[in-house]
Design goal:
The chain is of the alpha/beta class. It is built from nine helices and six strands, in the order βαααααβαβαβαββα. The protein has helices spanning 19-33, 39-42, 50-58, 68-85, 98-108, 121-128, 151-159, 174-183, 212-226; strands at 6-9, 111-114, 136-137, 167-171, 187-190, 202-204. The longest helix is centred in the middle third of the chain and has 18 residues, at 68-85. It starts with 5 loop residues before the first strand and ends with a helix.
Length: 227
Amino acid sequence: MSEIKGLVFDLDGVITDTAERHYLAWKGIADRLGIAIDREWNERLKGISRTESLELILAEDPTLLLDGEEKEQLLEEKNAHYLELIAEITAADILPGIPELLEEAKSIGYRMAIASASKNAPLILERLGLSAAFDAIFDPEALTYNKPHPEIFERAAQALSLETHACIGFEDSLAGIEGIKRSGMPAVAIGIPAFGEWLPDIEVTATKELNLKEIVREVTMKERVEG
């Protein structure tokens, strides 16, 4: 049985909620291309990279044939708009229950990492005042594969000098839960209404329900039973 020594967090939807800002930035791009997307459609973009998000939007209109340079320009435009939208983020935008969970984890001595597909994670954490809370912030540009591949979680654990089974992963997307489970970490799902093949070890409807001691106890008990 593994002793839990680390926690690995997604950013958007787990530490703070920038989903609406992402949606508005992507909608601006889609509108300009004559593609209609709404908030429900935008759920498809959760947990995947910026490039993959653009490809999903472009797939809505197969007549649009853009070259690599044109796509790169759209990605830059989306990110510039998004950066404008997050300029006003403060500690007040940290999701409920997260400050207490991070403080408790630090007091216990857990190592903590961010495993986010967002290239802006360091900037967002700085604006939230949380940069010092994490021992590692993994750069998604260093990845070979994106979620749901387990690479980002495996490498986040490596950055903490831990085995994946000694960490617990926190996610709010199906792609993220699959990646966590495939890496060998126990998974905590936040606000995910339904699951497919990959089931989390623990699920809550909102971050305010996260109880670190209870999560570690349940994960440890589950490992004991399955082991």
